[in-house]
Every structure is written in C-alpha cells, then in structure tokens.
Amino acid sequence: MDKNNSEKQTTQSNQKEEISRRNFIKKAGLVTGGIIGSGLIGGIIGNQWWTGTENDVVNETAPDFSEARVFFNRREDFSVLSWTTERILPEDDNGPGAIALGVPYFIDKQLAGAWGNNTDEYMKGPFIEGEDTQGFQSALNRGEIFIQGIRKITEVSKNEFGDSFEELDEEQQIEVLTMFENGEIELQGVGSDTFFNMLIQGTLEGAYSDPLYGGNRNMDGWRMKEYPGPQSSYINVIEKEEFNFMDPISLSNYN
Amino acid sequence: MPKVLKKVDVVTVGVGWTGGIIAAELSKAGYQVVGLERGKEETLEDYNQMKDELKYGHSRNEMMNSLSDDTLTFRNTLDSQALPIREPENLRIGTNTGGGGSHWAAQCHRYLPYDYEIFSQTVERYGKEKIPEGMTIQDWGITYDEIEPYYDKFEKMAGISGEQDPMGPERSSPFPTPPMKEVPATRLFKEAAKNLGYHPISLPSASISETYENPDGQTIYGCQYCSFCYSHGCEFGAKSDPVITVIPTAKNTGNFELRTDANVTRILYEGGQATGVLYTDTRTGQEFEQPADVVALTSYTFNNVRLLLLSEIGTPYNPETGEGVIGKNFCDHHAADGASAARGFFNDRKFNLHMGAGGLGAIFTDYVGDNFDHSEVDFIHGGICRITQGGAGPISNNPVPRGTPRWGSEFKEKSLYYANRVLNVNFMFAVMPWKHHYLDLDPTYTDSTGDPLLRVTFDFEEQDHNLLSFGRDICVEMMEEMGADIVEPSEDIEHVKASFTFQHSSGGAIMGESPDTSAVNNYSQMWDMDNLFVIGASAFPHFGAPNPTGTAGALAYRAAEGIDKYLSNDGGQLVRAKESKKYI
C-alpha cells in the first residue's frame, strides 16, 4: 500500500512548487526590493507592480484557494475519485501521480462546467442503444455519470472486499476498477466501460493540460513527459537531430 | 413575418474558404455581396491564448460547432436505424468566420488528372468489369488541364509551400513559397523511401515557409513551427486562413458586408429561380429575408446538402433505384489516419515531437491514382504514403506498444518513455462512392427549430478493406526501413464509426456532365436552378487520396468566375449538358 508514500510525495511536490515559483520570480526579473504580505504569492506572477524581495517569499506557502470541491459535495465521493485517478496514473520513479498533480480537483471543476453538463452535446431523444459504430447514446450528462459511477465503485468495493475503496490495498483497488473497465458492472443509462473511459480521459487531461485548469500542478506532468508547454517558436531548433529539452512554461507566462 | 431586406447581387451562406473566395472575387469585380455567417467574426486577436490542447484539441473542440442545436444521424446500412452523433469530439465542423479554413492542419494538395476522369480512364485501361457493381464513380465534367489555372489561383492566394512532385501532374507555375524545413523524422522518411525506390517530396503546406504577400496584397507570415495548427487558429498569421486573406480582401473593396449570427434556414425560390435566403438572427430570433440575384451555398458539405433538401431543390437521391441526385455519392476520408498506417517505436532515439506544423511532413505518391498498374490488385485508385510532424500534444500523446494496459503503472512508464520515441507513417487513401452511401433527411431526429437532421448512411466496402490493407503493407515496409525497433501495423476497421472528425466529407451535390447524374455543372452551378451555386467538397463525385481544401478552393475560384459570367451576361446555364454517360 503506497498511500502514505503518496502523501509524502504530495508534500514534496508542494515544496517543489514553491521552489519553482521562486525560480520563476527570479527568472522573470520581478525581484527588485520591497515587502510582500503572506498569501500574495499566487498574485505575484503577472503583476508587474510587485516589488518584494526573493527572501520575503522563501518561507511563505501559497494557499491555493482554488483547491476546494465545487462539484462533489460528499467527501467520500471525492476520495474515491482521487484514489481512482491515482490508480490510473500512479506516483512512481518518473514523477508524481494523479493526486499530486491535482487531477481530482481538475476533474471536479470540469464536471461543474460545460463538460460535466454536456453543454455542447446533442441531448435530444429518443435515446436508443445503437450498434457499436453509432457511439455514445446516453441521456445522462457526464456529471450524472460520474456521481453514479463513483458511488458504484464504493458499493462494489464493499460487496467484494468488505471495505470502502480508499481502504482497499492497491491490488484490490485495481481489481475493482478492472471490473468497471471490462463493462462487468451494471450502471443505469450507461455502460461501466464508458464511465471508466471517461475516468481515464479525465485523468490524462488533468495530468497534462495547462495548469490553468487546476491539474498538471507545477507543470510536473509536462516535465515527466519532457513537454515544454506553449512555446512561441521552434524555428531555430526544429531541424536539429538531438532532443531539445526545455523547462516548460504555461499560458500564465505566455505572451 | 420575416423582415425583407434590400436586394444584393450575391449572398453567400457561410463565410469560410469557399464563401470568402466568392466574396473576395465578386466584390473586387464590383458586385454587392452579403456574407451570412452562423457564428461570430474571428480576427487574429481571437487566436491569442489558443495554445491550449484541452480547450481546442480533440476533447473540448472550442473552435468547432456545438452540437447542442443540431448534429447528424448515422448508420452503416440502409436497413438500420440512424442515431444522432452526440459528442462534439465525433463531429468536428468549424464555426465562425474562417470555418474549417481556420482550424485546418493546412496540408494543401491537388487532385490528379485521373480523379477528374476516373470512370473513363479506368474503363479505358482495365475495362468496365474493373469497376465493381454498386460503385458509382463518374467523371467530374471537367479535366485536370481545365481546372489547373484555378488550383494555381488558390495556391497563389494562400502562399502554399512545396516542391514539384516527380510523380505528379505538371504545374503551370512553381509553388509560391519554398518547401517547409526538413526535420529528423522527415529526413528519415525520405531516406527510407529513396532506398525503397520511391519518390519522396515535402508535403505541400499552407503553414508557409517564409513571409509572403499574395496577389490581393494580404501578408501571410513565415511559420514558427510552434505546433498549434490543427484545431487551432494561428496567432502569428502564419497559416493561410480566410480570416487573414480572402475575408479582409473582400472587406477592403467596400462592396462586402459580413453579417454574423445569421443562421440560414431555407433557400427561397420562385419559378425555378432562387430569390434569396431566409435566415434567423440567432441573438434575437428575428427572421430576415435576404433577396439576391445569385445565391452561393458556401457552408460545409453537410449543411450545403441539408439546405437543398430542406428547401426542396433538386431531386433527392434514391439509393434503391439510383435515381435523383441530391445526397448522392457521399464519401468520407475520416478513417484515413487510423486504418491504414504503421507505428514505429524507437528504443534508442528521441525526436522533438512537441515541435512542428500541421503541414510539416513528407509524402510519396507512387501508389496514388493510376500511378501504378492496377491489373493485379483488387481495388481502384490508391493512396499517398505520408509522415507528418504536427506537434504532439501531451494529453493525446500517450503511445504504448500493443499489449500494454491502458492505465496503471506499466501504462505510465511506457507512455512516458515512448512519448518522444514514436513515429507514425500512414496511407491517405481515396474513397470511392457507392450506390447505398448517401445523405438524406432523418425521419426521427430534429434540430432545435424542429427541422429534420441530415442522415448519413456510410460504411467501408471490400474496395476499402483491400486498399487499406495494401497501404498498410507499404507503411510497414517504410517503418522497417526507417529502423524502428517495434513496428505495429494498424488494425483493420471492420465498419466505419460515427466519427467525422477531419472535415473531409464530400458529395451530396456532385458536379458532372449531365443533370441526370449530377447536381451541379463544372462551375458549381445547379443544373435545376441557374442562379444557385453549390460550392465546396459537396461537389466532389468521389474523395481523392489527399486532403480536400486545395480542390475545394480551386472549385470556388471557378465558381466565382461562373457567377461573374452569369451576372454580366444574360444568365442561363454556363455549361451545355452532355448526354448522360451510361455509368453503372
């Protein structure tokens, strides 16, 4: 069971984040002397008027006001979601897993918005189960599917192993999720395989999308993949034979 | 009651590449043109902060039309019930000014002389029995030599970068700009192709290699290879796009009015002549009638055909009898990337896959059209072998060798290891039309106003499986020659899925020699309605091997010339119909 290990890594990741922010401030040339109050670090980036010194911010931990649940009201649902994403993209020697990357908060925010509400989907009936080639035909939106699916994970965990999902060991968690992946679990209005595909999609999106959405914390998902983010030009390096590693930037410091 | 507006010379339905070209050419010639666009107006400013794979890539599809109001329905066969395509990731059609011309990958090819005379040349060389029963190929009613000047015009307007294909037809002038840069992946591809006796060239690209001023005085800037082309607008103005070319050209004349938020619902007509269009301002719900001397249908293939069917213009196609023309010969290119390809994993070599441009790549055309002898193969036409480096986004780029789980430790390990160690070679294949592949109105599903949705009936045939398998072998041969450690051929796809994701759909209002077998003549003018022009890939009688924009653009330039002829003379048909050839 590597849950504790993962929590430790999360802390490490927060420390890394702090370090990297300092580096950013340094690199961006914003350090010109002056004083800054606690809690303002998040607002520094992009604020040209800030005149703090590097030392002023070293011991501050930036509170992240965006890490609060907006879609999942029940604590247990969010915990099951979190451990599910961690099993999909676990912490390992390559770097942080889904939890440390902020994936659960990313998915929570996405479910509260257009994606979760199927704003851009055609949602008129009749809803008929078609052939395999005819694609998704559910009357449920993704938010409804996630709530139903997550609670079913809890139910299956209790039935199969007598405990809640987060208390199962890693192998048991994988076993439960594999049943969903294989479409063996009955859900109403959607297949459990479809639900599981959404979990995989949401996890990869949370790990590798621009950090502006709340995942890919500190761009560590991009670092693992050696992806440099939204660079403005590669015209001078694209012809080269060797791999060109660049530290990533995000849309918050693009332009 | 709709409010009736002042009559204009020309109204376009949609303002993307084809609408923009019509607007630019006719407003330059002094005609009053109104462009009706269902979406909003886009400018380069709207392309800021677009380097966002989540928002603009295959998941959230922000540059694409929302499906909340309308979509397509889809089925594989005539006897099954069509169901709606519900998710935007499975039906990606551009919206706002620029349309598909803003989000395209900008690979800009020409069709072949063979494409334009596919029926005659196949029969002449192999006999009529080479064409299987039910395959409805026909000649386009124009030859390559006749359409060539219009390709030239489109390519000069768009500044296309490229080099002469030794296997391809002659060009009347060289490419406006030199080919895009070589990168390790394209070098590897070209060397392997040469070793195998093929004739590789750089892919013709509308993300252009150097800053260029087009004949209309519009500037397209040199590409920065930043990778955000496909599905995105180019913030640098380095990808040819109606928003930075034909639309401003039209506006500069003072003769063009762009009207956004205008959803055209019907083409209006009286006594066999179009009188204008009916549209709704989507902000207020107010209906307007825009009278015009000429109506140019310049939206995407699906909407062009749907508006004809909803307006009851032309004879709807009947797949049982083969009679009628509206909806006939629907083809779609969308499975091309996945179904006929090879993937190569390199254990000891890394590529800069995050860099690139939509049009950066290399191809060879030794196996396209009738460039090789088809006597011993069980298909007609062929495909183009291609490698591209469009820039791999980190959300979608998770390559793992076959047999690896889709999630968990092993997935993470391998997807990170191979993220920059994988190349794909694919075979862009031509798609032939069939008697039972067509478009009509769905009997069950409707849009938000209650009008029926367009229904697509389409599948792979034996021709496709044979051609895809042939192309797959070539891709595997190439990938092995390129030195990949693991070479994986793509898996055959048994049936086409409800997924129209590249905006490569054609037919439904096809061009030809006779009103018996086609909807429009070679000026894209309706045989049944002299002042209605239906422009774009809806006019293709089949889908050639490469991407469609160059050909749709050429047809639009020819249509613009036709509209000018129509308006400056006494109207009437611009082409004399020929006796209907006895197609199968």
Give keywords.
heterodimer; A: about 260 residues; mainly alpha; 2 domains; globular; B: about 575 residues; alpha/beta; FAD/NAD(P)-binding domain; eight-stranded mixed beta sheet; six-stranded antiparallel beta sheet
Low-confidence stretches of chain A: 1-59
Number of helices of chain A: 9
CATH level-two architecture of chain B: 3-Layer(bba) Sandwich
Question: So what's the CATH class of chain B?
Answer: Alpha Beta
| Helicity range of chain A | 40-55%
Instruction: Output the structural class of chain A.
Output: mainly alpha
Biggest sheet descriptor of chain A:
none
What fraction of residues of chain B sit in β-strands? 15-25%
Number of folding domains of chain B? 1
Mean pLDDT of chain A comes to 83
Strand content of chain A: under 5%
Number of domains of chain A: 2
Fraction of helical residues of chain B: 10-25%
How far apart the termini of chain A lie comes to 44 Å
